[in-house]
Amino acid sequence: MASNWQFATGDAQTVKKFSKKFQIDSAADSFWPGLIQTIKGQDIEQIAKANMARNVVLRYTDLQGAENRGDTVTLYNAAQLTTAPFYGDVVVAGNGAQISTYTQNASIDQVAQSVRSDGRLSEKRMLMDFRDTGNALLGDWANVFIDETFTIALAGESTFVNTYNNYTSGAFSSIMNTSLNAFTSANITYAGNATTNATAANQGNIVTAQLLTKLKISAKQRSLPLKKLKGLPSGAQFIYLDDENLELQLAYDSDWSARQSQGNSRGADNPSLTNSIGSFGGVECICFERAFRPISNVAYGMLLGAGALHFVEAENWQWFEGKEDNDRKKVIMVSAMFGIASAFVNSTRRNAILVPHYVGVAGI
Known about the structure:
six-stranded mixed β-sheet, disordered N terminus, 364 residues, five-stranded mixed β-sheet, 23% helix, alpha/beta
């Protein structure tokens, strides 16, 4: 997301310098920028455009600007056609498939964060520059907040074990003022022999290359198939997002190791797939250190197709600088307004499969 800068100094060069630096810092180490597709157009137009989804996150910009009022946007979509074709001289007229359309709402909320100095004397004692340091810290905060917000909305989990210093720790019923959409049993595939979160805590129920293949097949054969990704440099059809221990689990998998030795596209060579550890059979694997753990020893992985998440951007990140206490203390603030919602049709999650599994490595 871009930035709009407002400075008390009015120094154009300063604005340019810090605008560029904030954008770099706020996008550092995030894997989402390469997985976002911008959709423009309101009302019925969104049905066709959203149905042409090519990437995991669909970004809508219709509420940007003062002329576009409102704190809720209605998102339109249409289910893929799965009916059989007509053959021979069978009468087609009047027997065609009906288009199944559905809508969902995403509410808009505002989020902000700021840093402030202790005063001119404290700044004098500091070896670090307050503006440079504040900019870097806020950039990192914005990056992690977006990563966590997107992942919370996708996971649809109301509570989780906070094993990291997450900014968004605790229990949730909504995120950015939009209710979470939990996974139903039809869209959950357990690792190994697990059938519940409790049994997924057993050491043998880990992610393997065989499981990735099973997920890919399931994504295509279910009654509402996951939409394939298109245009990623790696050629991936789906993204698998998981706990950072995923790399350790797959490192001991002979099928995975053999495939990587054949020269798959890696995240280090592909800027649009930050945190990628490689791919297997058209499934690109991405590790996220703040992935969710609903209970002890269980992590949630997710297979994601095109259009799994809606991101409605009403106001992109803005940067403000001011002073307090008769100009003796400096304040830097960033804020944004957006809405976010996982895709669903008829109360069923769309273009995503949840994968509960053991968090560690088998036998360790």
